[in-house]
Specification:
Elements: E1 7-11, H1 16-21, E2 27-31, H2 41-46, E3 47-52, H3 58-61, E4 69-72, H4 82-88, E5 91-93, H5 100-116, H6 118-126, H7 129-133, E6 147-151, H8 155-165, E7 170-174, E8 185-186, H9 190-196, E9 199-202, H10 216-222, E10 227-230, H11 239-247, E11 253-256, H12 267-270, E12 275-277, H13 286-306
Parallel strand pairs: 1-2, 1-3, 3-4, 4-5, 6-7, 6-9, 7-8, 9-10, 10-11, 11-12
Helix pairs in contact: 5-8, 9-10
């Protein structure tokens, strides 16, 4: 192992701010992707930390004999095998809280875009159709009188709910267990909630437990006035079932910021007029991305300086062993 400054590996793309700040404290090494075949013998023992934005499979972790910490750029860390990291005693960190408000803002914006067809109205104006063909068609949907069900009620879900209160809509939620001290109605199953509301906002992590849980049965339960918004992970929605439901009027509309195989969006969804699509911009403001970048670096600095990460994920609540 190298002595002196810890060596941090960066596989693939990473925020420029992270790359600008890391050399102040660490020696850096780069590989094009999190691929074990790209690891050199020198890296095996020298690398003590990894800063990553995206996927980091278990096999790549296992290439490094002295790995201590993986700092993830993002709140979701489904691309990292945190359970495997835990078995190795490797701490994984993420960037919660700093993007909560930005993603909640995006969710509300996407909901308004979807219900009121605002992007289509803007295109009508830009294409000269307002002057040529007259007023844009009345939106068939409105937010007035809607009942919104949140699928997931963590930090971001609660921030979305606070914003929704200002719109005067009814708010419900589905999580495995009810949250204490909330006035919102809790539904023990997703289908129960879908039957009771006409709008679902998805903000759960992308895990096996949530994979394609928004399926044909849930969409049928949501009904013909139904609106689906997803600002969580694309894997939560069965995209084929959603495209079918939208095309047949099983539900009314959808707004999606995330997709199963990003950056690729199914043609069936692109072809539909009753879906609003965004290229995963939930937290994509300069200010928020800067805060995320700083937290990635600050986690690494804290780990090697104090022996404790600032925001370890729940699977890896470790402290650093004295070296």
């Amino acid at each position: 192992m190298s002595h002196g400054r810890p060596r941090i590996l960066v596989p693939g793309k990473m925020s420029k701010r992270v790359l600008d700040r890391l050399p102040e404290t660490f020696d850096l090494v780069f590989v094009e992707a999190a691929d074990p075949s790209l690891v050199t013998p020198e890296m095996v023992s020298d690398v003590q930390g990894i800063a990553v934005s995206g996927k980091l499979p278990a096999g790549f972790m296992d290439a490094f004999s002295n790995l201590e910490i993986i700092a993830n750029f993002g709140v979701g860390y489904d691309g990292i095998d945190a359970a495997h990291a835990a078995k190795r005693g490797v701490v994984v960190t993420n960037t919660p809280d700093v993007l909560t408000e930005e993603v909640a803002d995006t969710a509300i914006g996407l909901l308004l875009n979807t219900v009121r067809q605002l992007p289509a109205a803007e295109q009508w104006l830009r294409q000269g159709r307002w002057a040529r063909d007259g007023a844009f068609a009345l939106s068939p949907l409105t937010l007035r009188g809607r009942t919104v069900g949140l699928y997931g009620l963590g930090r971001i879900g609660l921030a979305i709910a606070r914003r929704l209160e200002a719109f005067g809509v009814s708010i419900a939620y589905h999580t495995r267990t009810a949250r204490e001290g909330l006035a919102y109605t809790h539904y023990p199953t997703l289908k129960d909630m879908a039957e009771a509301v006409d709008t679902i906002i998805v903000i759960v992590p992308g895990t096996e437990a949530t994979r394609r849980t928004i399926n044909a049965e849930v969409l049928q339960a949501l009904g013909p006035q139904g609106v689906l918004i997803n600002v969580g992970r694309g894997t939560t929605v069965d995209e084929a079932a959603l495209a079918d439901a939208l095309s047949r009027g099983v539900i009314a509309a959808a707004g999606l910021d995330v997709f199963e195989s990003e950056p690729y969006v199914p043609e069936a969804l692109l072809a539909l007029p009753n879906v609003s699509l965004l290229p995963h911009v939930g937290s994509a403001s300069q200010a928020t991305r800067n805060e995320m970048a700083d937290l990635v670096v600050d986690n690494l600095v804290a780990w090697f300086d104090t022996g404790e990460a600032l925001t370890p994920v729940e699977e890896t609540p470790f402290k650093r062993k004295s070296v």
